[in-house]
Amino acid sequence: MNVTKEGNKAINEAENGSVLTTIEGLSAVTVIGLGMLGNALANAFLKEGHRTTVWNRSLSKGQDLIANGALRAADVAEALSASPVVVICVSEYDSVRETLTPYSDFLSGRTLVNLSSGTPEQAREMSKWVSSLGAEYLDGAAMSGTRLVGRPEALFLYSGSPSAFTAHQSLLKSLGEATHLGEDPGLASLYDTALYGMNWGVLSGFFHAVSLVGKEVDASTFAAVATAYLPFVTSLMTDYSHQIEDGHYPNGEGTLDIHAGAIDHLIHTSQANGIRIDVPSLFKTLIDRGIAAGHGSNGIASVYEVIKTQTVYEEEQV
Ligand SMILES: NC(=O)c1ccc[n+]([C@@H]2O[C@H](COP(=O)([O-])OP(=O)(O)OC[C@H]3O[C@@H](n4cnc5c(N)ncnc54)[C@H](OP(=O)(O)O)[C@@H]3O)[C@@H](O)[C@H]2O)c1
Hints:
Elements: H1 5-13, E1 28-32, H2 36-47, E2 51-55, H3 63-67, E3 71-72, H4 76-81, E4 85-88, H5 93-100, E5 111-114, H6 120-132, E6 136-142, E7 155-160, H7 162-172, E8 177-180, H8 187-213, H9 219-246, H10 256-272, H11 278-295, H12 303-307
Parallel strand pairs: 1-2, 1-4, 2-3, 4-5, 5-6, 7-8
Antiparallel strand pairs: 6-7
Bound molecules: NADP nicotinamide-adenine-dinucleotide phosphate.
């Protein structure tokens, strides 16, 4: 492949990039960055039959993709010129800039989908920069690690140009469920960060629970029961989201006062079993603060009222 800037311009002008669309309605796509996630993304596009061009800074990566039919671009200019949609997945936003800046003229007319992790501010800055180069921008977040990529249950979140999302939604569905959160390019990153924190909350509870039952029950035996318990937890999330929106916390699932006692049992049992109590201590702190703020007779979603403020408590002051 040998594409000059002039050639690239001609391609852009040719019927809005339609020359870059392959036969039978399948799209051409470029993936820049073939680390763990980028490799999985390219693989998923290939499996769906899309013409997939790849580029990685070091040549050591991507051999498997080439063996499976991917085209290796000689440089970033070729990579950008090869497809109307360019997916970039490198370590961080600075690496995105470092990779693309010398070849920024080649972005014109393309849609850049950035699946590298960053902050909402970085996403908004990136969107401005990419738009100034005559390209469309979608910021993305891969919410299912690498393990589910290419399967319908893999969740990918996008924000930014609605028209770019509509135009390329079917291509993006090769990676998994594609959800567009809104025009603000920072939204995917915001959700990504929030869900990452939630994942830690759930998993730290799981790690504590496995430790607690550990002397008597295998982790995998416990996990099977815990997984069956999760639909109840997700149903609570739905109910509690409405309570939070209403600012009203009915106590049908027990008051904070009642839960304070239950958490004490959890802490006591943990100590009796010789394991650390960091995780339930966090729950206790939140419950105690909710009670101190007057929510003792409310339901547990009222701890939201404590978390959402920036109140600094006495023992936290230095
Ligand atoms: N892995 C996951 O499960 C996962 C899930 C969600 C989100 N993410 C996000 O996806 C991004 C990539 O993650 P990963 O797990 O694929 O990382 P990784 O395996 O460490 O790969 C990093 C990639 O970035 C490239 N890179 C780093 N700095 C570069 C630079 N200055 N210029 C050009 N290329 C550069 C590397 O190229 P070289 O090979 O040349 O070093 C490599 O292709 C990260 O932002 C990560 O947070 C990952």
